């Protein structure tokens, strides 16, 4: 007889994170259209429901009822596996993100994080680099040269920018000395001490990370794998119905995860200014218990983190409707000859500053 | 070389400055422009016209769907002279002329009338030359009505049933506007009572 593992609070957190990621990705499709419309002096979707809020539902109905198409000569198993892999990897990376500090009920302490591991950042990077398999398999299995070209572009782009991204990250790790995302978050605000967010210590690293995040999520101006003008439709040319939907959906989940990672690494995660002063004020002046004050701070911090994430998602969309796409040689030159040397310079600079005792 | 338009711009191939090569200032400039548009759209100026509820006003010189006018007592003005068909550059108008019989004075204004009058909306370019050519002010391009889209090609050939102006100007139904014998009788009496 197989003994089933008991469902702990962590599984509930993971389920909630899963649901929230999907919900946010769903409404990203709506937000993308509204923001695009507003940036171009248009109205955007306003027919389905109040302010067009049911638009994602209408999209889902459309995608689910469209014809399932398999190109002749395509490898059916791989063809189905591609979008699945893209979606799974996109969703998995959100498991290690600390969405909030601890919440305490009596003696039970809940950590608002799927899995607390001390290799959190490695986990995210590992999963993100697996994500390119979804695109590559999709492009290969389509049995279409344009799809294959799009997939190859996606693959080389992701690999190129992952290098610079990893090196930008190393500078953060030099400051924090840990790979645990929760530790990195907590270090950015310590009770009784004046601590800056990492963006102040790592402005150059943040810009490199941000540019690479755009490239990793295949968003404009780095959306070369899916450019219609050159490649018909890129790696998902042959995809129809919900398989296509999964690819597009995975992109939005990736945007959400990338925004969350950037908020955690550089913008203090669930910390917000004067949180400890606020907690002490509730305890000392209002006579609250320490745990309930801490819980309140955690919840406000959770909302604050989501505010930061939404700001980043907005930024992703804002850039998309501002900048044109790169040419492929420009993309490669930017990645290899500018971003990677800059990232190495940033590592050296950070090392020098740490040795000089200017930052720690 | 002399400039033809006074708009010629002298181009210089200066090497780019560091700020231009760094690329980021230009990006921030672009972002600020789109952000300005974002708030402009959120507050007031949007170029969208929400079509079924809101309609863009027609230009004062707009020429739309044809109509064959009636005169002040309801008789068809068209005498089937064919000048409109001759004037038409797209050869969209065809007609068959007929002679008015006794008792039909209430229906047709002149002794000759159009038994059939057809405009092919697939050929028509709405130039308005038929309207200019008409000596009887019978054919007229409406300033507020467009030829609606249809599914079949033969539906674009508009006969008299869809072209002749309804007797009652308030009747919006275009089909079946031929006068009934009673209406024709009443009209001819009304005309015979009029002083010559």
UniProtKB/TrEMBL annotation, chain A:
**Where does this protein reside within or beyond the cell?**
Cell membrane; Membrane
What's the catalysed reaction? a quinone + NADH + 5 H(+)(in) = a quinol + NAD(+) + 4 H(+)(out)
Q: Name one GO molecular function term.
A: quinone binding
GO terms under cellular component: plasma membrane
Query: What InterPro entries does the annotation carry?
Result: NADH_UbQ_OxRdtase_su1/FPO, NADH_UbQ_OxRdtase_su1_CS
According to the lineage, what is the superkingdom? Answer: Bacteria
Q: Which residues cross the membrane?
A: 12-30, 78-100, 120-142, 163-182, 194-215, 252-276, 296-319, 331-359
Q: Is the keyword Transmembrane helix in the record?
A: yes
Q: Specify whether Zinc is a keyword of the entry.
A: no
* PANTHER family on file: NADH DEHYDROGENASE SUBUNIT 1 (PTHR11432), NADH-UBIQUINONE OXIDOREDUCTASE CHAIN 1 (PTHR11432:SF3)
- Please give the family membership noted in the entry: Belongs to the complex I subunit 1 family.
What does this protein do, in the record's words?
A: NDH-1 shuttles electrons from NADH, via FMN and iron-sulfur (Fe-S) centers, to quinones in the respiratory chain. The immediate electron acceptor for the enzyme in this species is believed to be ubiquinone. Couples the redox reaction to proton translocation (for every two electrons transferred, four hydrogen ions are translocated across the cytoplasmic membrane), and thus conserves the redox energy in a proton gradient. This subunit may bind ubiquinone.
Q: What is this protein called?
A: NADH-quinone oxidoreductase subunit H
Whose protein is this, by species? Hymenobacter chitinivorans DSM 11115
Q: What is the lineage of its organism?
A: Bacteria, Pseudomonadati, Bacteroidota, Cytophagia, Cytophagales
By which gene is this protein encoded?
nuoH
From TrEMBL, chain B:
Q: Which InterPro entries does UniProt cross-reference here? A: 4Fe4S_Fe-S-bd, 4Fe4S_Fe_S_CS, NADH_quinone_OxRdtase_chainI
- PROSITE patterns attached here? 4FE4S_FER_1, 4FE4S_FER_2
UniProt GO cellular component terms: plasma membrane
Keyword hit for Methyltransferase: no
List residues binding [4Fe-4S] cluster 2: 88, 124, 127, 130
> Known catalysed reaction(s)?
a quinone + NADH + 5 H(+)(in) = a quinol + NAD(+) + 4 H(+)(out)
A GO BP entry is: aerobic respiration
What are the entry keywords? 4Fe-4S, Cell membrane, Iron, Iron-sulfur, Membrane, Metal-binding, NAD, Quinone, Repeat, Translocase, Ubiquinone
Question: Which annotated residues bind [4Fe-4S] cluster 1?
Answer: 78, 81, 84, 134
What EC numbers are recorded for this enzyme?
Answer: 7.1.1.-
Write down the top EC class of this protein: translocase
All residue ranges annotated as the 4Fe-4S ferredoxin-type domain in the record: 69-98, 115-144
Mitochondrion is among the record's keywords: no
UniProt lists the family membership as follows: Belongs to the complex I 23 kDa subunit family.
- Name of the molecule in the record: NADH-quinone oxidoreductase subunit I
The protein's organism comes out as Hymenobacter chitinivorans DSM 11115
